[in-house]
Specification:
The protein is an alpha+beta fold. The chain is built from 6 helices and 7 strands, in the order H-H-E-E-H-E-E-H-E-E-H-E-H.
């Protein structure tokens, strides 16, 4: 198979779609999960890294329109940073992970993981009562004008995936079933 082919991320047109699909695949194939498979997860990671380099500044709004970020709005996040945080978050029991745009929001039983979330670079939003991660080492004020999570969801869309993936029955590539 050539290096440009896609096995897992066939329909991703922007970074938000790529991250959402990575999160879904990590919940299914991460070696620490019940349906985990190290070999498949390594293939997922390699493909994610390759596509992240292409799509990192291509964003999508809730209405489906895409745009190319430029200047100060380009991402400083690396592919491995997002992979690493997802790998750690999916192991935290009672945490709900939500992808809104290209930001991760964590709610649920987060208090017991406060120090771990801080160590991962997550910040607490008191008015939204949620932790967030945006992949930037500096606090980003772009979403501070949203009063609550519903406003963020309405503006950027949302992807929630629990520990039991509702998309799990989706047909996977042929070689996985072999």
């Amino acid at each position: 198979m050539n290096n440009n082919s896609k096995r897992f991320f066939n329909d991703c047109k922007c970074i938000e779609e790529l991250k959402a699909e990575y999160k879904r695949l990590a919940l299914k194939f991460h070696p620490d999960m019940p349906t985990g498979n190290l070999e498949i997860m390594q293939l997922v990671n390699a493909e994610y890294d390759r596509l992240f380099a292409i799509l990192k500044d291509v964003h999508s709004k809730k209405d489906g329109t895409t745009y190319q970020a430029t200047g100060a709005w380009t991402t400083s996040e690396s592919a491995s940073a997002f992979r690493d945080i997802i790998d750690k978050l999916i192991k935290m029991q009672g945490i709900q992970i939500e992808l809104c745009g290209s930001w991760l929001w964590m709610t649920g039983e987060t208090m017991q993981y406060k120090e771990q979330l801080k160590a991962l670079g997550c910040l607490w939003s008191a008015n939204k009562k949620a932790w967030y991660y945006n992949g930037s080492p500096i606090k980003d004020k772009r979403r501070s004008h949203y009063k609550n999570m519903d406003e963020i969801r309405n503006a950027w869309g949302t992807e929630k995936i629990s520990g039991t993936d509702e998309k799990q029955d989706q047909k996977m590539p042929e070689y996985i079933h072999a």
